[in-house]
Amino acid sequence: MQRNAHAHEEAAGSPPTPAQVDHDLVARTRDGDQDAFTQLIQCHKNQVFAILSRYERDSHRVEDLAQDTFLKAWRRLGQYRASAPFQHWISRIAVNVALDHIRRTTRRIKETGFDDLGESPMDWLRSEDCGRETEKREARELLAHLLNQLSASDQMIITLQSIEGRSVNEISQLTGWSAVSVRVRAHRARGRLRSALQTFLAEEQRQVEHPRPLALLPQAA
Could you give the maximum distance between any two Cα atoms of the chain, in Å? Predict the structure, then answer.
């Protein structure tokens, strides 16, 4: 009875497994079928996006990183060996793309001068130098992230003095604080901002050196 059922299943044809689908699409892509690679992307894009989103919160950047991942996969397809599931192979590419992104971002942050906040920090944020637009955008995003970790008064003093460039006297008139109090508050707020930045950089560096392991991906049937 079981043998008859098995024979009937073979005759009817069982649906291909995910691994078989990947194998067929990879082979067709290697033969020059671009539509096959588009189908590979569709099969694995959710998995790739999920991995990249662990390392980057901005959805637009995740899109860019995903494009980079699939481009690298296409270029390296000749290196893929079917001894391992394709989903594991492309997942590893996604992780490496994400870690490279973290290294670049951390390097840019260190080069912007955020870790050297002085009496007139972040002047370059107000610069009209269009050649640094990418760095300026990333610095603004980082600054907003760090400010959210400070108290409302710290946020206000840093915004007024360091971002808007107001003088001590102007801030004193706006807030009702004495000039001495403005200077003390600004000094302490910058110190706390520096500490928040150092904590952020340390965490980013830890993630680069010791990335969180991938959750075990389901084995193809």
Answer: 94
pLDDT tens digits in sequence order for the chain, 221 residues long: 434 444 444 444 678 888 888 889 989 988 888 899 999 999 999 999 988 887 777 788 889 999 999 999 999 988 888 777 898 899 889 888 887 887 776 666 555 554 444 443 344 444 444 445 555 666 667 777 788 888 888 888 888 887 778 889 888 887 888 999 999 999 899 888 888 887 877 776 676 666 555 444 444 33
d(CA 15, CA 57): 37
Instruction: Kindly state whether residue 217 falls inside one of the protein's structural domains.
Output: no
For the domain that residue 37 is a member of, what is the CATH number?
1.10.1740.10
What amino acid occupies position 46?
N
Residues 120 and 203 in one domain: yes
Long-range contacts of 95-101 (CB under 8 A, 24+ apart): 95/51, 95/211, 95/214, 97/52, 97/65, 97/68, 97/69, 97/72, 98/51, 98/52, 98/54, 98/55, 98/56, 98/65, 99/55, 99/207, 99/208, 99/211, 101/55, 101/56, 101/61, 101/65
Domain count, the chain: 2
